[in-house]
Design goal:
- The structure holds 2 protein chains of 2 kinds.
- By secondary structure, chain A is of the alpha/beta class.
- Chain A folds into 2 domains: about 70 residues, Methyltransferase, Methionine Synthase (B12-binding Domains), Chain A, domain 1 (Orthogonal Bundle); about 120 residues, Rossmann fold.
- Helices cover about 55% and strands about 10% of the residues of chain A.
- Chain A has a 5-stranded parallel beta sheet, sandwiched between helices.
- In chain A, helix 7 links the parallel strand 3 and strand 4.
- Chain A is elongated, with a radius of gyration of 18 Å.
- Chain A starts with a helix and ends with a helix.
- The longest helix of chain B is centred in the middle third of the chain and has 34 residues.
- The relative contact order of chain B is 0.12.
- In chain B, the strands form 2 sheets. A 6-stranded parallel beta sheet of chain B has the order 4-5-6-7-8-9. In chain B, strands 2-1-3 form a 3-stranded mixed beta sheet.
- Chain B has 17 helices and 9 strands.
- In chain B, about 55% of the residues lie in helices and about 10% in strands.
- Chain B has a domain of about 150 residues.
- The two termini of chain B are about 20 Å apart.
- By secondary structure, chain B is α/β, with parallel strands linked by helices.
- The radius of gyration of chain B is 22 Å and the shape is globular.
- The chains are: A alpha/beta, B alpha/beta.
- Chains A and B meet through helix 4 and helix 8 of A and strand 2, helix 10 and helix 15 of B.
């Protein structure tokens, strides 16, 4: 692992991070090690977000740096086994709602925190969530919505999941816009989150049992 | 005996002005942004009202008469937009029946309508940039404007006159015809807004706002660079972001000052990207608050009262945003801890809010009353408070809206 790379990533120094990565690749560094440095950096970024030292702009910048580094490193990967994933999450913006900024950030953070994320996109009907649960067998389902009309769409989605008997197999979290505990109760979801890191904490708790 | 509309109007103006000036009014004022609520309430689709002048007029007037809030918002310039948006092939919005369900509110389509490498063009000549680069992206019907020469290049007979040749194309002709059509539709908007305002006055309702402005950073982020773009720009091109917000400040001030020429004092300033979590305190103090504060101060200097809607949670900003003149502005809070806001800001600004929409949409009238009671007891103490939901209430249950307004009028009387 490269302490230097971790340091510049954590401190949001984009140009330096890309230069160091380029140097490492030229020197023949194992690409998996570069990605491991990224993972370590993201863990620190996530922790700083948790304690209120970092905010959404830092998460977005970290994601942007990670994306560029992955693009540089990927051609060098020769089918190396990727690290063990912790669990699976199906996520999407519920039917009738087209907002995706919050959902995308949650999906990104879950991914860098070691979860396989199946992102169903926006305006996702209940049946599509149900199918995805059957196909991918996730431990956790995330429903996103910004508009107040999403309350009903979330409720319908949870109901649809209940009807197909897969309800017991998944934990459902909701988030976005006006969502709070009142809405959680209304929709029948298991939990709600105020920000993107809440989604990560909830998923870790449910999947890891801690 | 029923009060005359003129008397109601004066009472309502005074009630709200007392609250703004941190005096104790006769009772807590109560109002809302109804959004598309009147359409649902009157059994017509959101789509219908966007295209039907009379339906909108009737549904909105009847709703105001039945609910009797202290002040109204004019729906025409923000809701009666179906035709003009179609004519211009407007890209930034999906609306009921046009990309959204006929009973769904607006959905803003965010994108980088300005690219990261276009800051210099934006700063050099904003109007030229908007007309030849931004408008063609935002209005499909005006795409051909991208082929025009720079507006500033046509100066006089021997400087630039030949540039008019660019207007000679079928595409530009089509674009200009769309502009003329849009102009006529815009006149209908103004006609509707004027007629609605007149009817409201006859019924004794003053308007909540005479104009709208935005924080310069929000305008840059919302409409030009996008949330993600603006966030990355703070790291990559901090000086350009600051220059762009400086450029937008006098423009936002001008749009806000329009209230004055309309004979009103209240300016609505909804905020989007400066809330807790969306920015660090450092970023807020660098990119967001300085130009917003100057906008607020300049409007106050002109004798106006900014109504600032702090969306999301802004609890960590409360100490910072207290730095404005006393008794001149309203801070409307969505998810911010409004009780803490009262402690910190109670001597500085009038506070508005914040019955959660979750309660308004899924709760019972008793839930609403319980929350309102707490608001009136704590935030309403000593005046300086306006009752409202946490934000625009499109999908609230009518019984809950009645409960909020009715309970406030009853329990919110100052003795």
């Amino acid at each position: 692992m490269s302490e230097k790379l971790i340091d510049v990533l954590v401190n949001m120094k984009e140009e330096e991070a890309l230069e160091i990565t380029k140097d490492l690749i030229e020197k023949g560094e194992n690409p998996m090690k570069i990605l491991d440095s990224c993972t370590s950096a993201m863990e620190i970024v996530g922790k700083r977000f948790d304690v209120g030292e970092y905010f959404l702009p830092e998460l977005v910048m970290a994601g942007e740096m990670l994306r560029q580094i992955s693009d540089m490193v990927k051609p060098k990967l020769r089918g190396e086994v990727t690290s063990e994933r912790m669990g699976k999450v199906v996520i999407g913006t519920v039917q009738g709602d087209l907002h995706d900024i919050g959902k995308n950030i949650v999906a990104f953070l879950l991914d860098v925190n070691g979860f396989d994320v199946v992102d169903l996109g926006i305006d996702v009907p209940p049946t599509k969530f149900v199918e995805a649960i059957k196909d991918f067998q996730p431990e956790v389902v995330g429903l996103s919505g910004f508009l107040t009309l999403a309350f009903d769409a979330m409720k319908q989605t949870v109901d649809a999941i209940k009807e197909t008997a897969v309800r017991d197999r998944v934990k459902i979290m909701i988030g976005g816009g006006q969502v709070d505990d009142e809405v959680r109760r209304y929709t029948g979801a298991d939990a709600f989150g105020i920000n993107a890191m809440d989604a990560v904490s909830l998923t870790k708790r449910w999947v890891g049992g801690n | 005996m029923e009060k005359a509309p003129e008397q109601l109007y004066e009472e309502r103006e005074k009630r709200v002005n007392d609250a703004i000036q941190l005096r104790v009014p006769d009772r807590v004022p109560v109002m809302s942004l109804f959004g598309f609520f009147p359409a649902r309430y009157k059994g017509i689709t959101f789509e219908e009202v966007m295209y039907n002048y009379d339906q909108m007029m009737n549904a909105w007037i009847q709703t105001m008469v039945e609910f009797q809030p202290d002040m109204y918002e004019n729906p025409f310039t923000i809701r009666y937009l179906g035709r003009i948006m179609e004519t211009l092939d407007f890209k930034q919005l999906r609306w009921p029946g046009h990309g959204c369900d006929v009973m769904s509110s607006y959905q803003y389509m965010e994108a980088e309508y300005m690219k990261a490498d276009e800051y210099d063009a934006f700063l050099f000549d904003l109007s030229d940039f908007m007309m030849r680069v931004y408008w063609p992206r935002v209005f499909g019907a005006l795409k051909a404007f991208e082929n025009l020469p720079p507006i500033y290049s046509i100066i006089t007979y021997y400087m630039g006159m030949a540039g008019f040749s660019a207007f000679d194309s079928p595409e530009i002709e089509h674009a200009l015809q769309s502009v003329i059509k849009a102009a006529k539709e815009a006149k209908e908007l103004i006609k509707g807004a004027t007629e609605y305002a007149g009817k409201m006055k006859e019924l004794g309702f003053p308007p909540q706002f005479g104009s709208l402005a935005q924080a310069p950073f929000d305008t840059l982020s919302d409409f030009f660079r996008g949330t993600k773009g603006a966030m990355l720009d703070m790291f990559r091109y901090p000086d350009k972001v600051l220059a762009a917000t400086e450029k937008l400040l006098p423009i936002m001030l001008q749009t806000g000052l329009a209230a004055k020429s309309r004979g009103h004092t209240r300016v609505f300033i909804p905020l989007h990207k400066g809330l807790d979590g969306f920015m660090s305190p450092d970023q807020f103090n660098t990119f967001y608050w300085p130009t917003l504060r100057r906008l607020i101060l300049d409007l106050i200097d002109e004798g106006l009262n900014p109504f600032v809607l702090w969306e999301g949670d802004c609890t960590s900003r409360l100490e910072t945003i207290a730095d404005i003149p006393r008794g001149k502005a309203v801070y409307w809070f969505e998810r911010t801890d409004i009780f803490r806001a009262k402690e910190i800001l109670g001597d500085t600004v009038c506070i508005r809010g914040n019955v959660p929409l979750s309660i308004m949409c899924t709760g019972t009238p008793d839930d609403v009353k319980e929350y309102c009671k707490k608001l009136i007891d704590v935030v309403g103490k000593g005046g300086g408070f306006i009752m409202d939901c946490s934000t625009v209430m499109d999908d609230a249950k009518p019984a809950n809206v009645k409960a909020m307004i009715g309970f406030t009028k009853e329990y919110g009387v100052y003795h």
